[in-house]
Specification:
Largest sheet: 3 strands, antiparallel
Oligomer: single chain
Distance between the termini: 41 Å
Strand order of the largest sheet: 1-2-3
Helix content: 55-70%
Number of strands: 3
Strand content: 5-15%
Radius of gyration: 17 Å
Order of helices and strands: HHHHEEHHHHHEH
Length: 193
């Protein structure tokens, strides 16, 4: 299973994804590429058991951000395979979708599938980082980020935050939604805009 998982990635797909990320987010670091990839493979960082807490956190984000701070997109695919999508809270702030719709889609996405093991994710990341290493990118803090990522994977963890540079430049405010829910329930509404 591990070998099959790792082999399903092509160097060309990895390179295409990384180049797109670098063009779209020139301030990103390896941490941000990693985060997008693990979100695409692992989904939301945890199961959601307290919907009220999730709603409170989203309410705070909606109250403390302005449209000018948010990225101009309503959604973008995560990672290489687009198993999940990032849906921006911009879509709520512009009254295109409701807060309830996004929260429901996020909670169902977080709780809908059995999360792959960290070991499978680590094997997949090693294939990804092997290709990225060969690209010889000039990303800031590359070696430091690579060591940090290895250190969390070694202790059986995988989730990290966006880099400070990414947060400062792009103000990421989104929720992760699994592709089947996104395409059926959210994308048709967003496509009308």
């Amino acid at each position: 299973m591990t070998l099959l998982c790792a082999l399903s990635l092509s160097a060309q797909d990895i390179q295409k994804f990384v180049k797109w990320q670098m063009e779209t987010y020139p301030e990103l670091r390896l941490l941000d590429i990693y985060k997008s990839c693990f979100q695409d493979y692992m989904g939301a960082e945890h199961l959601v058991s307290d919907s009220e807490r999730v709603k409170t956190y989203l309410d705070e984000e909606l109250e403390t951000t302005t449209l000018d701070e948010l990225m101009p997109w309503y959604y973008e695919p995560c990672g290489i395979d687009s198993n999940y999508y990032r849906v921006s809270i911009r879509a709520i702030k512009e009254d295109i979708i409701t807060e309830e719709l996004l929260l429901d889609a996020f909670v169902r996405s977080a709780n809908s599938v059995e999360r792959p093991s960290v070991e499978l994710w680590r094997d997949r990341w090693h294939v990804i980082i092997g290709t990225i290493d060969k690209m010889q990118l000039d990303l800031p803090h590359y070696d430091e980020d690579k060591v940090f990522i290895d250190s969390i994977l070694t202790v059986g963890k995988y989730a990290i935050s966006h880099s400070p540079e990414y947060r400062e430049a792009y103000h990421p405010h989104y929720r992760i939604v699994i592709r089947r829910i996104f395409e059926k329930e959210i994308k048709p509404i967003l496509k009308k805009e």
